[in-house]
Design brief:
CATH class of the largest domain: Mainly Alpha
Helix content: 55-70%
Number of domains: 2
CATH architecture of the largest domain: Orthogonal Bundle
Distance between the termini: 55 Å
Radius of gyration: 19 Å
Order of helices and strands: HHHHHHH
Number of strands: 0
Length: about 140
């Protein structure tokens, strides 16, 4: 796979202390979300078309993440861009727990045959639970 250099370009100017703090915090959120998905830096890099070293640099805040990469990065990590950049003042979300949502999004990226297999396993587990509840 060809690696894009557009997403790994750093600006020649030094970062201000505020920018350094922002990109360090962003990097921590990237690493946290990636690890929650049990994804390696190399896997995330492949999905984004960059090198593993670029992901490592993002995660420690050594490299600026380009704005145009944020939507793809957030999608790959199964989180919103707002959550990725640490936007404050977000109203509380309702719905599935974040880990469950992340797992569902990972299942959606599987080939159809694997998706059917996972759904059959879930259906079997839910059916067994329903049967056990009815017996009580």
């Amino acid at each position: 796979m060809s690696r894009s250099t557009d997403t790994e370009t750093t600006l020649p100017t030094a970062m201000t202390s505020a920018e350094q703090a922002f990109f360090r915090a962003l990097g921590l959120r990237i690493a946290e979300a990636r690890k929650a998905l049990a994804m390696t830096q190399a896997q995330l890099a492949d999905e984004l078309g960059v090198t593993q070293q670029v992901i490592a640099s993002y995660e420690v805040g050594r490299r600026r993440v380009q704005v145009m990469l944020l939507p793809r990065l957030a999608h790959a990590l199964a989180i919103g861009v707002e959550d990725l950049i640490g936007a404050e003042g977000q109203p509380a979300r309702r719905g599935p727990a974040p880990k469950l949502l992340q797992q569902v999004e990972r299942i959606q990226r599987l080939p159809r045959s694997r998706q059917r297999f996972v759904m059959e396993m879930i259906d079997t587990a839910l059916q067994a639970n329903t049967t056990a509840d009815a017996a009580e």
